[in-house]
Amino acid sequence: MNPVARRELQERFRTIRSPLVLSVWVLAAGVVTFLAFVVASNAASSQLENVSASGLGSVAAASSIGRFVLHSLLLGMIVAILFVVPGQAAVAVVGERERQTLQLLQVSQLSAWRIIFGKLWSALAYISLLLIATTPLLVIPVLLGGVTIGNVLSGLGMVAVTAVMVGAVSLWLSARSSSMQGAVLGAYVWTVVIVMGAMGLLIAEFFLLEPEDTGSTRIVAGLQRDEGRELYSTWINPIIGMVDASADATDFRTQIVTSPYRVFQGPLVARQGFDPSELARLEIRQFDQFGGFDRGFGGVPVITSQTRANVTPIRGAVWPRTLLFQALLSALALWGAQRKIQVPRVPSRGLFRRRRAHAS
Fold first, then answer.
1. In a designed cystine with 285, which of 222, 301, 345, 348 is the match (CB 3.0 to 4.6 A)?
2. Cα(252)–Cα(341) distance, integer angstroms
């Protein structure tokens, strides 16, 4: 194990703060899960108040509740990561400099890369523990239905990659800062810029780029479809990358409860040639046209089938591009961080032997 990471992890877990933060994290995740389940259950009950709780009605409601709970948990996790990781990683190097212990690391036999990776490992190991502690809660939406283990793992994977990217850039800012306050402030400012800035670019790009003209009208899943347009700013947004990895934006199945992903799926739907403003009406159209709700028995809504409209994507998924962007940015940040830590070069064995022979 990296000696820098081992030392910092031992110091961190010797205090009462670590188990206290872990307990608060698990409690907060449990509260979010419970509230999401209650909200989704109430929404489903209001939609199906005149429908029997058995049969396809309960299946459709449980599936929608499962998706709502999973999406709420993943959104809460990535937002928490964006708040926690910068504060953990931004003090890693500049803290050593202020305590005047960085020189001890520089004159040790550790290379600059090992020092940087040790700092990153120690910052992310604690975050990984927090994510692992909340993993049992992710079993609940899988049991409810509507999501798969693949959706859970891909969503968690994007959250973990985002944590690495934010940690690497925060570590670079820590290596080039002269004070802990400046490093922490810079890390949080950068995090806000990468998220909110990407949202601003997305809005601008969405209104500047017009859909491609197909020359013909096509109706897919009850909506008019064009050739869409590539929105490049979606590639750099970590939240949209996670949404794309853990849910299919062009899966127009019947939804009893609206997913919290809806606002982030709009750009993904626009890339595939649909108008995002039609998403709300699409649900009603499915109920009317695709058998989601059948108005029978005196106008009482009865679920006859849980229809899934499979739409062939025009463009590939966003999350591989987001993954590549985050990997490149992390590599550049770590390279810049290790350049800021000047470690004396270790002489080669031949030169060391010549110096030793000359001294004798």
1. 222
2. 52
Provide the number of structural domains found in the chain: 1
CB-count exposure of residue 89 (10 Å: 0-12, 13-18, 19+) = buried
Q: Are 85 and 167 in contact (CB under 8 A)?
A: yes
- DSSP letter string, 78-144: HHHHHHHHHHHHTTHHHHHHHTT-HHHHHTSS--HHHHHHHHHHHHHHHHHHHHHHTGGGGHHHHHH
R_g of the chain, CA atoms, integer Å:
25
The dihedrals phi and psi of 211, each to the nearest 5 degrees, come to -60, 150
- Of the CA atoms within 13 Å of residue 154, those in its CB half-sphere come to 21
- In the numeric block, which tokens belong to residue 169? 């850039």
**Does residue 358 belong to any structural domain of this protein?**
no
pLDDT tens across the length of the chain (360 residues): 677 777 777 777 777 777 888 888 889 888 988 998 888 888 777 766 655 444 445 666 777 888 899 999 999 999 988 888 888 888 888 888 888 877 777 777 778 888 888 888 888 887 888 888 888 888 888 888 778 899 999 999 999 999 999 999 999 998 888 888 888 898 999 888 888 888 888 888 888 888 877 666 677 766 778 888 888 999 999 999 999 999 888 777 666 778 888 888 888 988 888 877 766 665 544 444 444 444 443 444 444 444 445 677 888 899 999 999 999 999 999 999 888 887 766 554 554 455 555 555
| 136 falls within a domain | yes
203 within 8 A of 119, measured Cβ to Cβ = no
Task: Give Cα separations from 264 to 202, 241, 328, 357 (angstroms).
Answer: 11, 10, 24, 69
The two tokens of residue 219 are 């109706």
Please enumerate in sequence order all residues whose Cβ is within 8 A of that of 201, keeping only pairs 6 or more positions apart, or say none: 233, 236
User: Residue 197: what residue type?
Assistant: G
Q: Which domain holds residue 214?
A: 3-342
In a domain, 54, yes or no: yes
Burial class (CB in 10 A: 0-12, 13-18, 19+), 295: exposed
Burial 92-125 (b: 16+ CB within 10 A, else e): bbbebbeeeebeebeeeebebebbbbbbbbbbbe
